[in-house]
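Researcher: Last one for today. Full complex below.
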Amino acid sequence: MAWVKIADALRAEPGRDITIKGWIRTRRDSKADGGLSFLSVHDGTCFDPIQVVARGDLTNYDSEITTLTTGCAVEVDGRLVESQGKGQSVEIQASAVRIVGWVENPETYPASQKRHTFEYLREVAHLRTRTNTFGAVARVRHTICAAIHRFFDERTFYYVHTPIITASDAEGAGQMFRVSTLDLLNLPRRDDGQIDFARDFFGKQSYLTVSGQLNVESFCLALSRVYTFGPTFRAENSNTSRHLSEFWMIEPEIAFADLADNAQLAEDLLKHVCDDLLTGRGDDMAFFELRIDKNVITRLRAIIDKPFRRITYTDAIAELEKSGKNFEFPVSWGADMQSEHERYLTEERFKQPLIVTDYPKDIKAFYMRMNDDGKTVAAMDVLAPGIGEIIGGSQREERLDRLDARIDEMGLPKEQYWWYRDLRRYGTVPHAGFGLGLERFVQFCTGMANIRDVIPFPRAPRQAEF
RNA sequence: UCCCCGAUAGCUCAAUUGGUAGAGCGAGCGGCUGUUAACCGCUAGGUCGUAGGUUCGAGUCCUACUCGGGGAGCCA
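Model: Here's the assembly. Have a good evening.
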């Protein structure tokens, strides 16, 4: 008999004999017709489980089937038929139920059939994927990633694998994880007493990357339109529902382009992915709307249907000043916007995603392109209601003299950026790009409140189990 | 890292002014039913986060630590 995935079985015409394989979600027994059991079986291929009807005349009915519990792994042969009961259109009349893996102690099975808190399930992350919510998150996350790759592929963007290990302190942004093979208990010292990093694995200090951007710019200035999609690492001691120590980031980079092109690309990407998600994972999205966040679908529809609002940092500050709101942190031109400020703009004032552009140079990275006013840079953040910043990007400074001025101004080690500066010396062009935090976007799309629940095995301060 | 809150049964929580622990769900057994958040009955299950302290007596009060949650900072 053909092994059919449950997603396909639920869509198939009744009448076929098939085999399904999966895990028991629930078992319900009936004494009618000489005894029969209803097994709800899921295999993760879709949101819904399939109902298996196991009758009392099966050889292992009394000995095995009636003792099945949530989590047991089974293979079922049977005929796909129209369901006699309510709640499902088709079901399987079993001709054989083979138990592949028992749950050895149902009393302590961590993912038993009852309501569990997300905090608890995080402690059993190896089993939480069998629940409705985490199965749905996993499928949605996959669909988002696939949609992102498809979006770029259709527009002739090339996928570039930038390194995970880096020796440059990249943008000086954030604490980095050190990568070293030195013996911490017996560090090699130079004559002056300093640690001798020349004897470390790479012959110099090295770290896990905080961004693939600098590297991908090199490919951008050769392949025109490129993107990275990989893990990034921040050693910041952040303990929030929006931060991870290890997370995934999508970073497109486009040549012969300015900030407006960049903003348009960001908007197009988000719209495309949201659209793919609603059409491709309607089952999971219906669940998120019902049980997690009653506004998710409305929010995604708004992303797709409405053009994003664009506003300069200067105008955004003006909006905050005339809001009449009593913010905890004062609003002033030149300071970074606080969470409460972003919240006001996206959730109260405009009630939609916002592209804020042209930030003061002093609060942005050295590689961002200086505007003609000499005070602001061609930066942009995409702020989403409920999440905050999901995209941060900029037009890059393509003029070597301006770039050098910024590097000097910020006291960065110019030698380390020699190859990055070379890109400005040999056929430089205006170019731009941004970083999209995958997990924050998955949060936005699902309504999941904690970022640790949208990545398979979260890494955060003091959290690296599994 | 800072502020606030929390930790009691497998899970979610309750326990009056300090007097040595209860419920629901889950689990097991039985009953009923083409069932589907099933329903009814019975049963088992706890070194009250860890270590100290106050007290005749601590789940309850005090201190430290660990872990978790919410908010903030940093950012994606």
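The longest helix of chain A spans residues 132-154. Chain A has a mean pLDDT of 91.
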